[in-house]
Amino acid sequence: MRYTTAGESHGPEEIAVIEGIPAGLHITQADIDEQLARRQQGYGRGERQKIETDTVTFLTGVRHQLTLGSPITLNVHNDDHNNWSKIMAPDDPATSENTLRKVLRPRPGHADLVGGMKYRHHDDLRNVLERSSARETTMRVAVGAVAKKLLSEIGVDVHGFVVNVGPAKSDLNDLTKYHDLNELRLVTESFPTRALSAEADAAIREVIDQTKRNANTVGGQVQVMATGMPVGLGSYVSADTKLDAKIARAIVGINAFKGVQFGGGFDNAEKFGDQVMDEIFWDEKRGFYRGSDNLGGFEGGMTTGEAIVVRGVVKPIPTLYRPMQSVDIDTHQDHKASIERSDTTAVTAAAVIAEAMVAIELAKAVLDKFDADNIDRMKEQVERYRDEIRSF
Amino acid sequence: MRYTTAGESHGPEEIAVIEGIPAGLHITQADIDEQLARRQQGYGRGERQKIETDTVTFLTGVRHQLTLGSPITLNVHNDDHNNWSKIMAPDDPATSENTLRKVLRPRPGHADLVGGMKYRHHDDLRNVLERSSARETTMRVAVGAVAKKLLSEIGVDVHGFVVNVGPAKSDLNDLTKYHDLNELRLVTESFPTRALSAEADAAIREVIDQTKRNANTVGGQVQVMATGMPVGLGSYVSADTKLDAKIARAIVGINAFKGVQFGGGFDNAEKFGDQVMDEIFWDEKRGFYRGSDNLGGFEGGMTTGEAIVVRGVVKPIPTLYRPMQSVDIDTHQDHKASIERSDTTAVTAAAVIAEAMVAIELAKAVLDKFDADNIDRMKEQVERYRDEIRSF
Amino acid sequence: MRYTTAGESHGPEEIAVIEGIPAGLHITQADIDEQLARRQQGYGRGERQKIETDTVTFLTGVRHQLTLGSPITLNVHNDDHNNWSKIMAPDDPATSENTLRKVLRPRPGHADLVGGMKYRHHDDLRNVLERSSARETTMRVAVGAVAKKLLSEIGVDVHGFVVNVGPAKSDLNDLTKYHDLNELRLVTESFPTRALSAEADAAIREVIDQTKRNANTVGGQVQVMATGMPVGLGSYVSADTKLDAKIARAIVGINAFKGVQFGGGFDNAEKFGDQVMDEIFWDEKRGFYRGSDNLGGFEGGMTTGEAIVVRGVVKPIPTLYRPMQSVDIDTHQDHKASIERSDTTAVTAAAVIAEAMVAIELAKAVLDKFDADNIDRMKEQVERYRDEIRSF
Amino acid sequence: MRYTTAGESHGPEEIAVIEGIPAGLHITQADIDEQLARRQQGYGRGERQKIETDTVTFLTGVRHQLTLGSPITLNVHNDDHNNWSKIMAPDDPATSENTLRKVLRPRPGHADLVGGMKYRHHDDLRNVLERSSARETTMRVAVGAVAKKLLSEIGVDVHGFVVNVGPAKSDLNDLTKYHDLNELRLVTESFPTRALSAEADAAIREVIDQTKRNANTVGGQVQVMATGMPVGLGSYVSADTKLDAKIARAIVGINAFKGVQFGGGFDNAEKFGDQVMDEIFWDEKRGFYRGSDNLGGFEGGMTTGEAIVVRGVVKPIPTLYRPMQSVDIDTHQDHKASIERSDTTAVTAAAVIAEAMVAIELAKAVLDKFDADNIDRMKEQVERYRDEIRSF
């Protein structure tokens, strides 16, 4: 399985093409729209989410709600393109009229300046920021929805929620209250902040409101958990076969993410060996299992069968309504940075995006090991493999 | 540029093959041995480092100390193999004699159990742990030495050091004392712990000594910095073109690493936008530059030209001399885990390994953008590109 | 540069996404439509080409007729989908009504049977043949048009024509009449068969007409030539870095192609060394050059600077109006194969498709070696490299 | 599965590293040496084959004759290096003494000139020809031997032989005499030319002898056949998933190969549809099968279950003892090309090399679809899949 996304923020369409999904997977546009809606609903999102409701259309690869085995194209139309049809016109030559709204004052923390240098977009940094935009994550969530559907066929569940926004934090001890990710999902999705409790939700909303009043933005952390993965996906044999490393790349590759950790993560820096390892037990019914999950579901870059626990950190959004110091690329004069419409925080949406990225990497790992041509054959192989592992 | 490592911990040889290094790069075995020695010298390493001194041999791809453009093979002989020549014999059939020293009690936190399940190494988990071993990092350091040599040709310097081991910490404010990485290198390499100061060094040694007395192991953090990278390597255009994401994968792909962050990293979770972004300035001589480096040298997954700052966290070594609870895979009876010869902490060596991995990713990024056939042509292109960026 | 195509023959849309095209390349929808029209115009094509005229729309990656550096999505609408909107509906569940027109009698020579087995499309082999269809080549020609545009910026021209259809042949000695590929293009594109001369054109039309009267199909050969490529693209250093080998894959990867050769190709089997090699000369103005081009522009898997000459063979179309022996996959009874609307020969279109595939591989090779971020920077680098090679 | 080869013709070692071979495959150095010997034994090979007998050593990845699942390193020592130890010294600086035997007169048809330009090896074209040498194919044969061993575990056999050398030809109708590839192997390997019959063998030897007397070289064709492949490997869904296309790349990627074809290949150019397709039949015991194998075992880029038939053409060796016209790269004066020790024809060895390359691609395809972690699990999956296909 591999995928590509394409699309500019105010261009006509957002596109994703996914190759290597087995034939016979049942999937509907509604399955994907449900995830797209989650991405749009986070507290602290700005106006754009009210302008348009993202819905997907299958352009290729699906027939009668079943995948064909051929490449799948997902399409989300940018409703807002109507307001930008001249400025973002693909096939009209540039004119004095359609090159208004140029961006010449790069925003610190965004790709504007470096992207302009790299691609020689000296005329208009819009050519950078139209792609280097949170809008692109729409299609990652769409691809992630397909991955989640595939994983659900073999009993793998994936869920993301918000750990903290600025100083307001969820209490992670609350996680022990829930028997499975579905119970957890019902709780965190009931809050507009995706926090773990009503108290945390209220505190986070208060931080966001206050930040907005300050014309500022704020960072936070999200956590993604996955249960039910077969044991032994990924491998220790080479640097680039480790599955946790692939997930690290997927998370840091999301706009604004500045770090990632697994299980206890950075807390390991102050721990001793006997506090960290997950001891090994065995019983007739379950086979081998662990007494804890300090390592976040990975040993040697491979899934252990315990819950996968991934944490990511999201920096504050760099587009400030009280802009920072910049320089006009035309005149080389100091100026405040450009203002593009933006949100107060991306953390609540980031939980959904990180969940999608983890789902994509897990689905890839499953399809690397098991038959990727037909979903039922894949399921049969997974089932046999699980029996084998249980009787090790 | 791509590379592969191969080799078992007590097998005859460790091997790395590197493809795509330009012709004409001056490199000697001594250049690599110097880095291998650094890896072996960290405080807290165990007995093996005293048994053998790693030295590399060029098997292919280098002639008269110049790369040929063809694949380069690096070879480090395992001196310790003499003691294991029957047990690890590649081409002898298994006999009752050469299958002694079986490992049947998997160590929690190591790849033993899961690796055994995945590859069906039910007879002997040694088949897993011989590869899933810190020994493998020898060759990553060797490959990293080639990458560092290449980077040095265009004025890129890369250096790793130790932030903390358990509760004993370097004071990162000390970093401001040094004008460049070479000054920093002279300091941190003067300490057996690779700490930032004599005080930190003493404190860290004390922690390691105490941990060893406790028959325990301990985790820590390392930091890698790189200066002089051309602006605009990596790209925002796709999830998998971001250079910071590739580095994240490279770091988490090192044995025992459980997390990675860039610049302020996880501190961003409690920060507001105006505290985080690196404001933009311009002057005639330097062109565009920043007033700070909070983002660790990356915007939009691209190098900004500021110093790259990567932090990784290393979990305690899972092989304890006071072993944890495990289960014999033959009898399914509870047992303490196996004991393999091991160190008290891997953090001091991890700084060198992480440095190598960052160097490899940076070299790849340079060779992706610039001519990868001849080193002088590459340098000419880099020079012209830097002029172009400076006059943006 | 990498690309993906997607789309079913009677589905709503054909899609291609291209990543890695430099920013700043001027390209219009008309540039692509011109190539799509060429694909549709060959003699011997059937009814479908009269139903619809393919035109492309840029969905992403292009603004004001300039590439942005971000992924480019090309879209060709299947006009014929109107007649198939229920049968090929992506998001409607299967019903008794929309599952008519099932294909259960696989056509020998097509992917129907094997594809059905592989993907478990036992219910309806249409799920195979909708993708394994000449329709898919539309998007390869579209991607090839972008590649050709990029190549034209550095003076590389690529052209494909028809060598023979069945027993009717072009005389390849006629090639010496033309000074460059553009002259050749004017001639071959003036004939509906893409032959090299009026005589050959007439003979080929006669063969096609006769074949059609026989309710049969017929094979042939096409040749693609490319001029102006920089010297030294591709490499001898590894099996998978040879550029001629990549082109071989691209050609055999086209539907119905059963072989490929370079320069003298299979004639080499009966030749002696002194008849084959291209002797080396030098003069002040041109630098090194050859006295002949027997090797088709490649030595050691690298471009020599001489014209690239690639020949491909196209098997007869497997869909016969007088169908061959097959078996119903439901009943296991012998039956004649299904009949889908089809052409008499694909050779005339295949010249355009093969040309596109060669252009894609050449563009990839150029972008591998030179800057792939901005078209002007790429051109500057190519120019300097050519100067260097000339003064070798 | 992926692999890399490394090594210069007169350097100390030839190396190959193979990743992704399942654990538990039984393999010995003798298995590989047997194939290396075949490569050295062809009629028409020159002196080098008498100087040294290639034997492999496992450096990594194999223990007690079983693969570990970790990367496998194969090593063949260049005995001839003793005579070149100064001139090819990796870690000595260049001196007046060790830079003798420079090559400055590029041989037409070899990579010398273009390679020199690309990598700026202006000082000594030996830096090119040491890698761009038939010596490199040693390691492909070694890797192919591992692939063949893996394939033999699931009943896939692969064999290559010589079709013709110059005007002397095997009669391919003789193929029908043999029930399986092993019978065929016994015949063709009994002849020093790998021809199909004693008559053809004698004729080919006569051509080679005569060519040698003429100080010339000669080309030819080889054919590789494979039986027993599971149905449905490779795919029609994308240009780069077709297995025949991958094989085409593998064949043309061998030194001196100028073309490749499948089944009837270029004969298709003059055929009509009803002469070409392989009609479909079914019986209770075998399931679906074909009445012929005109398409060489592929439909839609997928294996049909019929024998795979691949033909490649080998150009005459470009190193002539009566050298062709060239130019000294130092003086730009006309000169005859350099003479390096060489053979009269590579065709007899090429059959073994092409066989290896086909085996590698088939093994990759098997490991892409089935479990690649453990050989027994792979075999179990193949077995179940074959049952499924048989009952389609």
From TrEMBL, chains A, B, C, D:
Keywords: Amino-acid biosynthesis, Aromatic amino acid biosynthesis, FAD, Flavoprotein, FMN, Lyase, NADP. Reduced FMN (FMNH(2)). NADP(+) binds at residues 39, 45. The keyword Manganese does not apply. Its cofactor is FMNH2. It is an enzyme of class 4 (lyase). Pfam families: Chorismate_synt. GO terms for cellular component: cytosol. FMN binds at residues 131-133, 255-256, 300, 315-319, 341. It comes from the Bacteria. It catalyses: 5-O-(1-carboxyvinyl)-3-phosphoshikimate = chorismate + phosphate. It comes from Leuconostoc falkenbergense. SUPFAM superfamilies: Chorismate synthase, AroC. This is Chorismate synthase. Its EC number is 4.2.3.5. Homotetramer. GO terms for molecular function: chorismate synthase activity; FMN binding. GO terms for biological process: amino acid biosynthetic process; aromatic amino acid family biosynthetic process; chorismate biosynthetic process. This reaction introduces a second double bond into the aromatic ring system. Belongs to the chorismate synthase family. InterPro entries: Chorismate_synth, Chorismate_synth_AroC_sf, Chorismate_synthase_CS. NCBIfam families: aroC, PRK05382.1. Pathway: Metabolic intermediate biosynthesis; chorismate biosynthesis; chorismate from D-erythrose 4-phosphate and phosphoenolpyruvate: step 7/7.
